[in-house]
Protein 1
Amino acid sequence: MNNKLFTKIKSIAFLVTLFFCCTSLYSQSAMTNVESRNTTNLNGDWTVIIDPTGTGDWRQVWKEKKPEKKTDFYEYSFEGSPTMKVPGDFNSQMVEITYLEGIVWYKKEFTHTTKSNKRNFIHFGAVNYVADVYLNGEHIGSHEGGFTPFQFEITDKIKSGKNALVVKVNNKRLKNGLPSLGFDWFNYGGITRDVNLIETSKCYIEDYHIQLEKHSDNEVLGWVQLNGVSKSEKVKIKIPELNIEYETISNKNGLAEVKFSGEFELWSPQNPKLYSVIIKSKNDEVTDEIGFRTIEIKGKEVLLNNKPIFFKSVNIHEENPYKAAKAYSEEDALILLNWAKELGCNMVRLAHYPHSEHMVKLAEKMGLMVWSELPVYQHIEFSNPDVPQKMDLMMKEMIRRDRNRAAVVLWSLSNETYSFTENRDNALIELTKQCKLLDDTRLITHVINNQGYDNNTFNVWDTLYNHVDIIALNEYLGWYVPWQGKPSETKWKFVNDKPVFISEFGGESLYGSNYGPKDEAASWSEEYQEKIYQDQIEMFNNVPNLIGVCPWILVDYRSSGRMHPVYQKGYNRKGLISENGEKKKSWYIMKEYFQTENN
Ligand code: GCU
């Protein structure tokens, strides 16, 4: 990317952010690397008001009115209300609201001492789905989207002493939402990730991109964005382990270009090497653990650090199976990622939305590549003018948080959308272009399942396949779609010659199910599921340009639409493991297959 284009893109991105900050009460793009900031963590018990009918708005509960005159009374109060844990979903914390898709009001009090030379921000790791945030009775802004971070600057609103933070959380499904009305996972609502009060200096390091330049294993090409500057400022980047001390200077908008070289031990699943990288400006300093690797396409192959790689992947939903609750902590991530490692994976597809930073950082430390995806899922209202904007913002939030994670090798921008949906092609092609502009160092794809299957032959085509780096397709032969011939004789026709990834396959079984003949789907038997896996693996041998496979799914997970009272009980049972951690027969088939794939 030449410098002129680079400066132009960054300046446009900078102006867009500026426009958003100035014109609406919409949230700001969150600063990068909260872990390395001066934070006051606001996790813990928050008082809550459950508001199933949504009367809290006209009652203005954020004002916390108190009776003054003898005749006064108010039909709500946080005092005397129950508490809930933050982070965490609200559905699993109170049985009465297990299936609530609506409003819960949260309140947290905290004390603070304001300092004249400091700025203050409230940062949320994620809130599902729409968050309206109030501080000391005043609305400070809102955010839509359940899986990406956001923040508000509260420098001129925070008080010295006691402050009251109120968050209205609404997980009601929206037709023009992302996802829209229908999705096959549990709609956990709540303040689902960490909340932090962040104090910075007047001018702070807002964001940075410190990664290898495309096609280079020793040239770093990136930038640092300062916030709050009005003139150029020096920026230093240090990598003590490599004796690298690099200095650059920002322009008056705070953008500093970064270009230096180093003899890096490259990050890979076998050697998940991370370097301590210090980014320093006049009044701020952050430290990040960053890996350096290259990922690119060469003909029909994917190369990691210039060597062909086969993605041994598995799909994961962000759920702690033992708690039947939204996963949010490092401990939750460890349960899921340890299973993925045990299965023999070198990658995890975090379906169908950005998972927590804990999950991504832990995967990186454990040597698992990460497939990060936007919840642009199935029936999206692409013709609604708000939708492309929402997609764009969510993509920017996703990339911004994880752009320095070497483990993240691919951005997936949609799953199973339909080419017949109005404006789908235009909207997703435009989104792909924007994604490439924001980050051309990673692979980009769209997951599709509208391939034809006739006479035991797949016909794989979609307009979007001309705009992606790899072809990613979901197929459920043996479950939703019966085989039309021997798996070993299945034929494939592709629209182009790109590398191919089977992003979903599999079928359902109830662990230990002993109901009915094992060769019938309705037995929900492990044997029936096992056969699906054996057949799929046989078919994989003749899939041209196959660079990876990814079973749906690692562990049984909650989905309210899965209603069979005996076999499903509100669970999608396509897991290789049951929600109690029991390994199904198909687990061993997949583990053995990954053992044969020697890379
Ligand atoms: C789809 C979809 C998944 C879903 C799965 C299933 O392909 O992408 O989200 O859960 O199929 O039907 O189990």
Protein 2
Amino acid sequence: MREDSSVSRRRYVQLAGGVGVLALAGCTEDEDPDEIDTGNGADDADDTGDSDSEGDLEIVHWWTAGGEEQALNALLDGFEEAYPEHSVENNPAPGGAGAAIDAAIQTRVIDQDPPSTFQIWPGEAVRPYLEADALESIDDVWEDEDAYVDGVIDAAAPDGDLVVAPINIHRLNNLFYNVDVVEDAGIDPTDAENPEDLLDLLEAADDAGYVGLAQQTQEPWGILQFWEMVFLGQYGADTYEQFLAGDAESLESEIADSLELVERISEFHNEDAGTVAWDEANADVITGDAAFHHNGDWAAGEYQGADGFEYGENWEYIPFPGTEGIYTMVMDGFVYPANNPTPEATEAFVSYCTTADAQERFNPHKGSIPPRTDVETDGFPPFLQDQMADFEASDEQTVTISHGSGLEPARADQVQEAFAVFTDNWDVDETTQELIGIF
Ligand code: GAL
């Protein structure tokens, strides 16, 4: 294996803050970013070229919920078919929206013992790792940059070099529902034109004896993403951008109003919201105990995997009220960490993720659409055909705090903390001031 000089270049290592903000000293200004070891270069004197000696490709991710696990397995099967010389050590760090992955990965990066590859959101979430000089460029192994939809390449290359291989695009601004339940409650969800209208739907479902909104409040990202959708639905993408750009103070009344609506809607949550994971809350829609569920379309991956629960017949969705024409994008990808334990296998895997074959296998199970435009999607389920049409027709694509693309991680963590407190005390004024104080 090549000697990795990035380790000796690091001057200090520091983990700061309760949630662990990675802050490693980067390389000096005259140093080039590391390139992936191709196995052929002049600096490869230590490279035996023998992939057997490398060990298995260790992959760390958080996809343990039903449809997500199936999607990952489909991807890994494809990889092992394409590269039979490599095998995989699947090492999940369970926790929705990466709730547990950062702590696990950051410690290992600091100990110079990273896994072969790990899951990350393209965009702002990557920055601390870049600043720490902890990722290598994957420019050389990327298949067909031109085949990607707009915006993806920028997110995959926050500093100009491609460092994440994006595998999917989720939509966050969905409102899913159980068709029988809403019919029984006499509700037409398409009546909801803005987030306030949602309250009427939930009241009607509650009156008919159902849980209005299946929700998890155990981890703060659940209500954070819900508030993001309410705010977006009430005030639009420009105002949301204004908030992300740090102008929270002049949005005080908007923030307070949106939080108040979120608080009022919390009356219609399932009673066990504070102790369940997102997929457990979502299961209430499948069983017919709950009418609605807001989530990214990874929730649809669960419906697709449920027996006898058919899109259009048993479940449906609308864009979150007030956000029609907007596609809030959530992407996932895999990286090539520096100090890599399996250079050849990692290079092969990251490269495979950028292929049409990988994206064709992964996305139907995951409930997401492929970031490449040349993937064969005829066999994708009807729901994803509709999402692809909505993506094409969307006027705006927005980012999100709760899934890593909207704010740099140190700030995003502070926002998450404010929402952790909010889901405990539901104090609108205090949370408004907390959010303003972050910027
Ligand atoms: C998101 C991730 C999705 C899905 C979701 C629920 O952050 O991008 O792929 O896993 O969390 O855990």
Protein 3
Amino acid sequence: MKIAVAKGDGIGPEIMDAVLSIFDAAKVPLEYEFVDMGKWVFDKGFNNGMTPEAKATIEKLGILFKGPMETPKGKGVKSINVTARKTWNTYANKRTFQTLYGVDTVFSKAGIPIDITIVRENIEDTYGGVEHLLTHDVALSRRFITRPGSLQVIRYAFEMAKKKQARRITCGHKANIMKLTDGLFLECFYEVAKEYPELKADDVIVDDLCMKLVTRPDNFDVVVLTNLQGDIVSDLCAGLVGGLGFAPSANIGDHICIFEAVHGTAPDIAGKNIANPTALLLSGFALLQHVGLLDTASMIENALLYTLESGVHTGDFGSKETPSLNTTAFAQAIISNFGKKPAHNPKPAMVDMPTTCTVINLDKNPMLESAEGAQERIVGVDFFLESNLQPEEIAQKSLRHGGVKFKLVNISNRGTQVWPTGSKFTNLVNQYNVRFEGIDETPLNQQDIIGLYVSMTGNFKIASLELLNQWGEKKGFSQAQGQ
Ligand code: NAD
């Protein structure tokens, strides 16, 4: 079987070489097709960080084993890692965090075992990276949470929890504040939970979840979250088990899967052959399990656990009393322990992944659409406009545009109502949301909205607008604070 391999940037080539040397020593029956991906490929003028040949190879083979890739902060190219996950719809990011004997943490010293799997939604949320400067002072990011996208990842999490015989599956969210976006994710969670009555399913608000994870991590088993919250919580969990050097990840889709470490390119130690290859090796085990090489995966994993237990370590962890090994020597130590069993938690040949993905040729993009509910109707519009006037002045100018179809309902600034009621203590920025709704039950259409838009542009620069949709009694828009 062939898989695609991209060594990546920074420490990527060093840790990938170490892991592949371990695979070769274990006679893993995989062939590797090395592909060109990473910052160095961007620098050669390929905007998505990969050559067309690399893209074609990965789409043909269906499995990519990759090292970390560099992304400039705040400016420049989009993350190649995020682009790859999104382009190939690897909707579930599975990250496993387990106590490793030989890797001392406050919890291992206190005898509290950790075995947490975070399933992070991998495509949506603010990672769409759809951002605009609405005024010179106001930046806006669009946060996409969709029903089909949420159902895909949540169903994967339940299926995995079932295979793993998990004690509990928890949804982390912020649905108390983001009632439509996180609210939709939570609704999907309990919808899927009904199909798995044998699993204990519950939810925790994400800030409370963080507090509970750092006090009693052993109370958690599988946790599913939206993209950004999942990203933050999984790094927190990496800290619980000894740091990023021990955090593997699998990006699961229906047709393409990507296996990589959670950590980045570690530019501060790149090129020194001192990086810890454990996280990439653990990601490699997930890959081996995924392709059905269960015995090989558990043999190498037992050798790794034995090595860690015996106090062998790289410079980023372990006792300061014993000298650390470099990346290559650490890999050799694991190879020399092939066939040995650790005293703690030896790995049986088992798999906790739901199913392997199937490689197919697609002739068109799959459309994910859930069944339509009640009839959708337009009941109003939010205009996001630039102004440094006071709320009352905005209201007076806006009121004259409503005509016979629209009434001005409210004006808010950064989500807080400032008209018809508000407080003089609310600080303002030069970007308002002016909301109009239909005067009566007469349905509105897009032409009505355009008419109002054109009229409003007589007084204001409008940066964007959002239709206010309603399905039956269900409103598809949030209220302002204080409304
Ligand atoms: P980082 O994970 O690269 O490094 C954070 C710290 O952890 C550094 O001190 C580093 O030396 C240490 N570290 C990380 N991996 C290690 C390992 N295997 N062994 C020993 N120490 C290790 O995070 P960063 O510095 O914020 O990011 C650097 C670059 O990596 C950025 O361009 C970022 O965008 C990219 N990145 C890529 C991925 C990915 O490819 N999936 C993930 C995260 C960050």
